[in-house]
Design brief:
The complex is a heterotrimer of chains A (175), B (586) and C (597). Chain B has 586 residues and is α/β, with parallel strands linked by helices. Helices cover 35% and strands 13% of the residues of chain B. In chain B, helix 8 packs across helix 10 and helix 8 packs across helix 15. Chain C is globular, with a radius of gyration of 26 Å. Classes of the chains: A alpha+beta (175), B alpha/beta (586), C alpha/beta (597). The complex binds flavin mononucleotide (FMN), iron/sulfur cluster (SF4) (8 copies) and FE2/S2 (inorganic) cluster (3 copies). The site of one iron/sulfur cluster has 15 residues of chain B, from helix 9 and helix 12.
Chain lengths: 175, 586, 597
């Protein structure tokens, strides 16, 4: 709680940070409605990219749901996360169709290339690697998605090229 | 009523019974682990399975129906129960010999009852840090079997919502949000979770070693006080019926353990009434903040500090009897007997885990020392008695020491819900009206109903009072106050269901029936007391004459009254909100 | 209204979107403009047409010419040759086998020819984002009929007589369920659609929601009328964003048209639907967990009874059905219960949608009458196993189901027959596995899944699935011990019998059924430390068959560990000490000389 020690500098910081305004709007829209917690968490995660502790507290207070329950719900559902993640989330489908078609080798290759384990984030902060369950594109198995892009009929050999595309794009954006 | 067959026996039971309850009515005890009557019915442990229509069903949640056929003892049932318990054991430390719950553990007992002689499945174990942060409670999630009774108690009965399930599957753990340490949460230390935990996952902090050390130190004078509710429960630890009054044996046991003076918290409970009744009358006369709420339950105090910090001025400023005693034990008492207060160690025997926290509060040092040094729960005292080899049941009766062992029935009934109120009314009535109360028993405020109300005519002024026990009920009352709908003058609130006889430091098990018996024990003892009104306590009269002066006087103010600390509901609240919230409450 | 010469259906189902059908569509539009025939040819985006692995694909009507695996570069040729000159582009047609003649029309493709589409009647045919297209195909006629001519009892009776059973897995008679919800006392009731579709490898519900959302909306309204509910929820998994998007649009359109909301069709019946998006928990497909999740809590199942029909969402009577179940309702209302009851088998009426995936030539979505044999589905419709490999097993019912083997190829696919042989219908996922699949590894895979998805509430499932997975992992790593198979059996039996919900109760099924049919494979893993299918890396070695090796040296080039040596034109050899079993050499060898054993 360093911020608190320094007085309330965060007050103005937060006021400037429009994400908190958005969060307040979301909470206001749902407050008092039954079953609001999960939709609010979805939207809050969209705004912040993850669900940091102070956001969880604001939601708990705004919806009048105990914090322990908010935390219980976040840790129950695999799509909610309280950790910041990479710019792109790579989801390798390990559904049955994909598994039977060799998804494990694709995953292995990604781990190698990125030097991380499942649920890890690459050192450059670009990629978070995750395993997903069937995304319903089984016809194209094995499948992975990077952000909103879906890649099908993957072979481990394809991985380098695909990753490079994102890395290049990032370099260009930086330049 | 419906009629069903259990193991060939025809049973007729009310239609809202579960199979487990019906079996009990038929004299069949189905093993269980997660089910706890009146507290928790999650159907999660699967130990209570029985065969219905060729399939296994959890008896604790399966409703009875007409013509149901239940078998509770078949090869399928036995194999399943055993496998389930073996699975639990396969992810359990099995440290029975050194576990606090050795021989009182429901899992251990179950393994014995089911004749489990090996654990066939082994594999990965979950590993969590043990939470030692709270002065009151230790959480060891490694021993937790995820029965979720503590969650039910903490959220549904106490309404504090500290404990919840987090993560899922094999990684599931019952803990505060973010696996935060208890000391950093709004936990009230009430210990209700400890009372219901079937295993050693939630236990009291054990302070017995500190007491042994003090007793062994020849340079110290160790004084002990015993709370009102202890005398009707301690016997349970030695196999006596709940509600058996064991005051005399307890005093003897304490002497044999080596305490230098054995005193009674009932004495300071009488003192509390003197201060509190006068405070109430003062508030009534001077237009002070009303309703006034009692302040003797530290679980309740921590609750209001976190949950309703803006309503703190409703609290009586009186310290709890434990802390009034502590302050006097290091001022009045040494002066009277000529001792150096620095050499005095005060120990209290409490029904309560929250008292451990209370004793450590920085406000509680008005004697110049920590007023109460060590707090033991009933369970800890029982362990010391056993360790010392004292044959408790056959002890002769002893007597409290004077002067701080002299008390009235009014102080004694503090141990049950409604007791503080009744004691206060006995005194307030006589102080205000100057008349003698014809009937001392205010039965309206007794009993286990969640919120009780009464009105008392004090010579024309009608005093409206309410009594709540259990923090869930406390919250309801506080919400009424918040909404301006509480038309009471005086409210008694106790954190624990049933009051201190159901406290978090009491013998395990503590159930509704057991609470009822303990309450009966308390009121029976009150009936037998020669003096039953606090203001008639001769030792209290002397205390005022010799030392304090008068109720609410300067000395009282210094030693017997206190102030409260607004606290955050969530420590890690957004920093700005913290400040707003606290500023708003200040 | 404009009259078009040609209609081009572009599949925009999730599978095809992933293979970039949008670019193909854009290229087509572009070329149509260039050719100046944009006014004559209407391009329609549809939901999944069924043959997802052939995507991006289009179907050109009136004839129904089927073009597959398109790239944007193909657009010019299709437009100029086919649309302008009327000459079919043979190059882009579907060939059932590499050397077979191409098939031009969907009507001639085995994949389509053998199907009977009720639930999928509109999927892949209409533009799901245009309500008029739905209405043009009798959309909302059933709701109109129900509201104007039928009492709730009559509706329920119709559904009961049709013999429709729940398509979400358990096959519970739908009409009976509606009746329970109708009879449950209470003014406030809810209708819920289970679109959580967690079974990996299954995408029936996704395709219906994406391809024909109104069919579900209309059916839920009918259900609302029948049981006396005013509010519905569709619980969709978060992994289906396109389904959520299309459903949202459809709901808005229906509201605009007065087909949803207050006083539908001017009657005093009011009904509305809200979407709830899941957050990644398979167990939320289980009905009580789903209801708990709608309430905003951890999706932990609750004991039944009380059943949702009595005590469901927010404690109120709730009717819960699967997407495909709802998709069958309107045709039943319009065509009558008798019509429906004539399709399928005695106890399993109507059709079933299957999602076929895995080692099969035509992956995709098919709807066939109940009672169709597994052989027809896999070989006639699915086109058999790729690369001429042998069929080994098919898993139905996903992680809750079991496997079928060669001996079951001729069983009738209906609820009873599948259960009888130790599998189950489940939601319709059908994963085909070829001879190279290790059944112990597959069982391990499923247990890994259920262990991961266990909610953790009850002991047998929480700890038991972990223990089973540990044993199975041990087996695939060559560390199996004598007695492990028996332990698996004990655990399986007890977890099944005593778990709180269907997840735990069915989690051991894949183990039990693979044990039943492939016990010798388990024994080989335990006793001989051998993986007969050559999949478990710890148990195999790569080996060059000297008689087959021609000494071409290609394998040497790909081996990352330099584990292969040999002189040119002489048999090569693998140094097992150095080999890390990456399999690269085996893929590379043109003469199939490298084997695993
Ligand atoms: C673990 C588990 C997962 C399930 N997942 C789904 C699912 O994804 N979709 C579904 O419709 N039903 C699923 N079910 C079945 C539902 O509980 C329920 O039976 C079904 O939705 C009822 O609808 P129906 O009668 O129309 O089939 C699942 C059941 C279990 C035990
Ligand atoms: S909790 Fe019970 S079973 Fe576990 S170690 Fe302690 S006494 Fe033994
Ligand atoms: S019960 Fe057995 S294991 Fe435990 S202490 Fe006694 S002898 Fe030892
Ligand atoms: S001590 Fe009381 S408040 Fe604290 S966790 Fe236990 S039950 Fe909850
Ligand atoms: S801590 Fe105790 S009461 Fe709470 S879930 Fe674990 S075993 Fe049960
Ligand atoms: S009611 Fe009694 S036992 Fe419970 S917290 Fe208060 S003082 Fe302690
Ligand atoms: S069977 Fe598994 S998923 Fe179902 S309640 Fe038990 S732990 Fe949860
Ligand atoms: S399997 Fe891989 S490491 Fe082994 S020989 Fe072949 S290429 Fe080399
Ligand atoms: S690639 Fe095949 S044929 Fe060529 S050297 Fe290697 S094993 Fe022999
Ligand atoms: S199994 Fe991977 S997309 Fe379905
Ligand atoms: S006692 Fe019935 S399930 Fe635990
Ligand atoms: S998604 Fe296009 S055919 Fe299935």
């Amino acid at each position: 709680m360093e911020a608190a020690n320094k007085g309330c500098c965060c007050q103005s910081m937060k006021a400037q940070d429009e994400r908190y305004q958005k969060l307040a709007d979301i909470i206001a829209r749902y407050a008092g409605q039954p079953g609001a917690l999960i939709p609010v968490l979805h939207q809050a995660q969209e705004v912040f990219g993850y669900l940091p502790n102070d956001v969880q507290v604001l939601i708990a207070e705004g919806l009048d749901v105990p914090l322990s329950e908010v935390d219980g719900v976040i840790t129950f559902y695999s799509l909610f996360t309280s950790q910041p993640r990479g710019k792109y989330t790579i989801g390798v489908c390990m559904g049955t169709a994909c598994y039977v078609k060799g998804a494990a080798a694709v995953l292995e290759e990604l781990k190698q290339q990125l030097g991380i384990d499942v649920n890890g984030t690459s050192a450059d902060g670009l990629f978070t690697l995750e395993v997903t369950r069937c995304v319903g594109a089984c016809g194209l198995a094995p499948v992975m998605n990077i952000g909103d892009d879906v890649y099908g009929r993957l072979k481990p050999e394809d991985i380098r090229e695909i990753l490079d595309k994102y890395i290049q794009a990032e370099r260009q954006a930086d330049a | 009523m419906v009629t069903l067959t259990i193991d060939g026996q025809v049973v007729t039971v009310p239609a809202d019974y579960t199979v487990l309850e019906a079996a009990e009515a038929a004299g069949i005890r189905i093993p269980r682990l997660c089910y706890l009557k009146d507290v928790s019915q999650t159907g999660s442990c699967r130990v209570c399975v029985v065969e219905i229509g060729g399939r296994l069903q959890a008896a604790c949640v399966f409703p009875v129906s007409e013509g149901l056929e239940v078998k509770t003892n078949t090869p399928m049932v036995r194999e399943s129960r055993r496998t389930t318990v073996e699975l639990l054991l396969s992810n359990h430390p099995q440290d029975c010999l050194t576990c606090l719950r050795n021989q009182t553990c429901e899992l251990q007992k179950l393994a014995q009852e089911l004749n489990i002689r090996q654990v066939s499945f082994e594999g990965e174990r979950t590993h969590f840090p043990i939470d030692l942060s709270s002065p009151s409670i230790i959480r060891d999630p490694n021993k937790c079997i995820l029965c979720r009774r503590c969650i039910s108690v903490c959220s549904e009965i106490q309404g504090v919502d500290i404990l919840a399930a987090r993560e899922r599957g094999f990684d599931t753990v019952v803990s505060p949000a973010w696996q935060e340490e208890l000391a950093n949460t709004a936990c009230t230390n009430c210990g209700q979770c400890v009372l219901v935990c079937p295993v050693g996952a939630l236990t009291e902090q054990d302070d017995t070693e500190k007491v042994w050390a003090a007793l062994a130190d020849p340079d110290t004078h160790v004084v002990v006080q015993t709370a009102p509710a202890v005398r009707v429960t301690l016997g349970e630890e030695f196999g006596l019926e709940p509600g058996t009054v064991v005051t005399g044996k307890m005093i003897t046991a304490l002497r044999r353990l080596g305490f230098d003076a054995v005193f009674d918290t009932d004495f300071s409970a009488d003192l509390t009434i003197m201060e509190e009744a006068n405070e109430l009358l003062q508030r009534l006369n001077d237009g002070g903040k009303l309703p006034m709420i009692t302040s003797c339950s530290p679980g309740w105090i921590k609750f209001i500090e976190h949950q309703f910090p803006s309503l703190l001025d409703h609290l009586s400023t009186c310290k709890s009897p434990q802390q009034m005693f502590g302050a006097l034990a290091k001022t009045y008492y040494p002066r009277k007997v000529g001792l150096d207060p620095a050499k005095i160690v005060t120990v209290s025997i409490m029904p309560c885990t929250a008292k451990k926290f209370e004793a450590e509060r920085p406000e509680m040092r008005s004697s110049g020392y920590q007023d109460v040094d060590i707090v033991l729960t009933v369970r800890e005292l029982a362990r010391m008695i056993k360790e010392a080899g004292i044959d408790f049941v056959n002890l002769p009766d002893g007597e409290y020491d004077a002067p701080m062992g002299i008390s009235t029935g009014a102080g004694l009934i503090f141990g049950a819900t409604g007791g503080v109120m009744e004691a206060a009314l006995r005194t307030a009535y006589e102080v205000v009206t100057g008349k003698t109360l014809a009937k001392l028993d205010f039965t309206d405020v007794r009993g286990l109903e969640g919120i009780k109300e009464a009105s008392v005519d004090l010579d024309g002024t009608v005093l409206k009072v309410a009594v709540a026990h259990g923090l869930g009920n406390a919250r309801k009352v506080m919400e009424l106050i918040q909404q301006g709908k509480a038309e009471y003058h005086f409210i008694e609130i106790m954190a624990c269901p049933g009051g201190c006889i159901g406290g978090g430091g009491q013998p395990i098990p503590t159930s509704t029936e057991i609470r009822q018996k303990r309450i009966e024990g308390i009121y029976a003892a009150d009936r037998d007391m020669p003096l039953r009104k606090s203001h008639e306590n001769p030792a209290i009269k002397v205390l005022y004459e010799e030392f304090l002066g008068e109720p609410l006087g300067e000395m009282s103010h210094k030693l017997l009254h206190t102030s409260y600390t607004p606290r955050l509901k969530y420590r890690t609240a957004a920093p700005c909100k913290d400040q707003e919230q606290l500023a708003g409450n200040a | 209204m404009a009259v078009y010469r040609l209609h081009v259906l572009v599949c925009a189902g999730a599978g095809c979107v992933s293979s970039n059908c949008k670019a193909v569509e854009a290229a087509l539009q572009d070329e149509l403009e260039k050719a100046g025939i944009a006014e004559e040819v209407k391009v329609v985006e549809t939901g999944c047409i069924g043959t997802c692995d052939l995507g991006p694909l289009i179907v050109v009507y009136p004839e129904g010419v089927f073009y597959q695996r398109l790239t944007p570069d193909d657009a010019r040729e299709i437009v100029n040759e086919h649309f302008v000159k009327g000459r079919i582009v043979r190059r882009l047609l579907y060939r059932p086998a590499e050397d077979a003649e191409p098939v031009a029309l969907t009507a001639d493709m085995d994949f389509f020819r053998r199907q009977y589409r009720i639930a999928l009647r509109n999927t892949g045919v209409i533009d799901p984002e245009v309500i008029e297209e739905y209405i043009a195909r009798d959309g909302y006629a059933a709701l109109g009929k129900v509201l104007s001519t039928m009492s709730p009892e009559q509706v329920i009776d119709e559904i009961k007589r049709s013999g429709l059973r729940g398509r979400g897995g358990a096959g519970f008679p739908t009409g009976l369920k509606w009746e329970f919800a109708y009879k449950a006392p209470g003014d406030e009731k809810y209708v819920v659609c289970n679109a959580d579709e967690g079974d990996p490898g299954a995408f029936m519900d996704r395709s219906i929601l994406e391809g024909d959302p109104h069919s579900v909306i209309e059916a839920m309204s009918i259900a609302g009328y029948a049981i006396g509910a005013k509010q519905g929820f569709v619980y969709v998994r978060a992994e289906y964003p396109l389904a959520v998007e299309r459903l949202t649009k459809a709901l808005n359109q229906a509201r605009e048209y007065g087909l949803l909301g207050e006083n539908i069709f001017g009657t005093d019946f009011s009904f509305d639907i809200e979407i709830r998006v899941g957050a990644g928990a398979f167990v939320c497909g289980e009905e009580t967990a789903l209801l708990t999740s709608i309430e905003g809590k951890r999706g932990e199942p609750r004991p039944r009874p009380p059943f949702p029909a009595v005590k469901g969402v927010f404690g109120k009577p709730t009717l819960l059905n699967n997407v495909e179940t709802y998709a069958n309702i309107c045709p039943i209302i319009l065509n009558g219960a008798e019509w429906f009851a004539e399709i399928g088998t005695e106890k399993s009426r109507g059709t079933k949608v299957f999602a076929i995936a895995g080692d099969i030539n035509n992956t995709g979505l098919v709807e066939v009458p109940m009672g169709t044999t597994l052989r027809e589905v896999i070989f006639d419709i699915g086109g058999g196993i790729p690369k001429g490999k042998k069929f080994k097993a098919a898993q139905t019912g996903g992680p809750s189901g079991g496997c079928l083997t060669e001996e079951h190829l001729d069983i009738s696919m209906d609820y009873e027959s599948l259960t009888q042989v130790g599998s189950m219908m489940g939601s319709g996922g059908l994963i085909v596995m070829d001879e190279n699949t290790c059944m112990v590894d597959i069982a391990r895979f499923y247990l890994d899944y259920t262990k991961d998805e266990s909610c953790g509430k009850c002991t047998p499932c929480r700890v038991g699935t972990t223990r089973m997975l540990e044993i199975l992992t041990r087996l695939t790593e060559g560390k199996g011990e004598e007695g492990d198979i028996e332990k698996l059996e004990t655990l399986a039996r007890n977890i099944k019998a005593s778990s709180l919900c269907g997840l735990g109760q069915s989690a051991p099924n894949p183990v039990l059924s693979t044990l039943q049919h492939f016990r010798e494979e388990y024994e080989a893993h335990v006793r001989d430390k051998r993986c007969p299918a050559g999949q478990c890396l710890a148990l195999i070695q790569f080996f060059i068959e000297p008689e087959l090796c021609r000494g071409c040296g290609l394998c040497i080039k790909v081996c990352p560990e330099n584990a292969i040596s040999g002189n040119r034109r002489e048999p090569h050899e693998i140094d097992v000490e150095l080999c890390v079993k990456c399999g690269a050499c085996q893929e590379r060898c043109p003469f199939d000389a490298i084997i695993r054993r």
